[in-house]
Design brief:
By secondary structure, this protein is mainly β. About 0% of the residues lie in helices and about 40% in strands.
């Protein structure tokens, strides 16, 4: 069984009609590698209405996926995703507009 992982060390908002596909990870925490103490850093994640997080994809702390954006399979969102836009890769790059018929 493939599961989702929501690492909610900070605030997570999931809007209406959001799809978080199998094996995807919402990761609110990281560590400050610049400090010897390796301190925990957290940041909120917001998935607005109609967002689709593809299978085995990561959404990093501090990221907002705006309305109806798509993060394609096996991609990493380390910056905000624009509304009605499809992203792919690691790090995720804009590939095309999302048109809903």
């Amino acid at each position: 069984m493939v599961q989702k992982w929501i690492d909610n060390l900070d605030f997570i908002k999931i809007g209406n009609n959001v799809c978080i596909s199998q094996g995807s990870i919402l990761l609110c925490g990281n560590h400050d590698f610049k400090k010897e103490s390796f301190e925990l850093i957290t940041g909120k994640i917001i998935l607005e209405d109609g967002v689709w997080i593809g299978a085995k994809s990561f959404v990093c702390s501090g990221v907002t996926c705006f309305s109806h954006s798509v993060l394609s399979v096996n991609s990493v969102a380390n910056k905000n995703l624009k509304a009605y836009t499809i992203y792919q890769g690691n790090p995720a790059k804009e590939v095309r507009e999302r048109k809903i018929l």
